Amino acid sequence: MTSLFASRRSRFLSTAALLVCLVGCGPRVVTVTGKVSYKNKALDHGSIQFMAADGKTYATTIESDGSYTVGVGTGKAKVLISCTDEKAQLAYTTWLKSQGPGGGGRKDDKAGGKAPKLPASGNFDLIPSKYADFTKEALSVDVSSSNRTFDFDLKD
Fold first, then answer.
1. Could you tell me the CA-to-CA distances from 32 to 27, 64, 65, 139 in Å, in that order?
2. CB of 91 within 8 A of CB of 124?
3. Which of 18, 36, 66, 134 has the fewest CB atoms found within 10 Å of its own CB?
4. How far is CA 77 from CA 32, 48, 101, in A?
5. Which CATH superfamily is domain 27-83+127-154 in?
């Protein structure tokens, strides 16, 4: 009888330990910091995202001095960085709305139907768009409790 009880107790404890490990043994989240620059100049706005190996994404905004702080799961992570010219994008969007359906303009269009100049790139990105797509650029880091400061100096 004692051995049957000990056997059940042992199985129960083993199962409980396994469940605790499955629930609590996921990646730890640590505070990651760093700076983002483009051509050696700090970005004054934008966003940065870290996609962990399990697909979870951790995101934050880039501060006016190029710095960021975000909690990220430990392990390998892909990095996405975006920075757009929000004023130019808003001006173009406002102009598009003023054109009404069909793009012919409205009689009350005070802008004279003239579109704001589009950037030469055809989009409003202030950094190469390859950095804003997890599949295009190979920015990656290995986050750990001892490795959690990452600076990025982006190039063309």
1. 14, 18, 16, 15
2. no
3. 18
4. 12, 12, 43
5. Immunoglobulins (2.60.40.10)
